[in-house]
């Protein structure tokens, strides 16, 4: 994997974590997401 792709993946991971972390517990619950799963979901979003 090249440097630019790695950086873009990291940036997308951080953006996903930030957006989900800003949501209230109620909003996350409505989406079926547990707060403890945020980092795992962000990693999955980068892998796609």
From TrEMBL:
UniProt-listed InterPro entries: YjiS-like (IPR009506)
**Domain (YjiS-like): residue spans on this chain:** 3-39
This chain's protein is named DUF1127 domain-containing protein
The organism named in the record is: Rhizobium rhizophilum
């Amino acid at each position: 994997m090249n440097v630019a792709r790695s950086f873009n993946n990291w940036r997308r991971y951080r953006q996903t974590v930030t957006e989900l972390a800003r949501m209230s517990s109620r909003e996350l619950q409505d989406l079926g997401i547990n707060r403890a799963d945020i980092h795992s979901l962000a990693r999955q979003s980068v892998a796609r």
